[in-house]
Design a protein that fits this description.
ATAP_core_dom, Hypothetical Protein Aq_1857, Chain: A, 3-stranded mixed sheet, 16% helix, alpha/beta
Length: 122
């Protein structure tokens, strides 16, 4: 397991998480009764959607051996090596607006997205 703690204000982290996304994820982790000091949010890319790739997120109790682990605003984020190839440089945010609430990934590697915004191509 590779550990990279990205302190707030560091201009070079490979994955960033906004404070609002971290707050929401930490609240969800606590509601699942998971230890926020060990457990974290897994961010991954999977085949699917009309553009070919889609994001996935879930909570894991601990990272896998080959994961890179980031920590932002108290939230641990786990990324596997294959997914990192697609999402390096991304920012995870939480949006709560008129069209609903949810996590959103702003990925600088995306060259096109499907019309609904659920899948992408790099």
């Amino acid at each position: 397991m590779s550990t990279e703690t990205a302190p707030d204000g560091d201009p070079t982290p490979k994955i960033e998480v906004t404070a609002s996304a971290a707050d929401e994820a930490l609240a969800l982790l606590e509601s699942e009764e998971l230890d926020t000091g060990i457990a974290g949010l897994r961010l991954f890319v999977q085949q699917g959607g009309c553009a070919g790739l889609s994001y996935g997120m879930r909570f894991d109790e601990e990272p896998e051996d080959d994961d890179t682990v980031y920590e932002h605003h108290g939230l641990r984020v786990f990324v596997d090596p294959a997914s990192m190839n697609y999402i390096e440089g991304s920012v995870v945010d939480y949006e709560d607006g008129l069209q609903g609430a949810g996590f959103h990934v702003e990925n600088p590697n995306v060259v096109s997205e499907c019309g609904c915004g659920e899948s992408f191509r790099t």
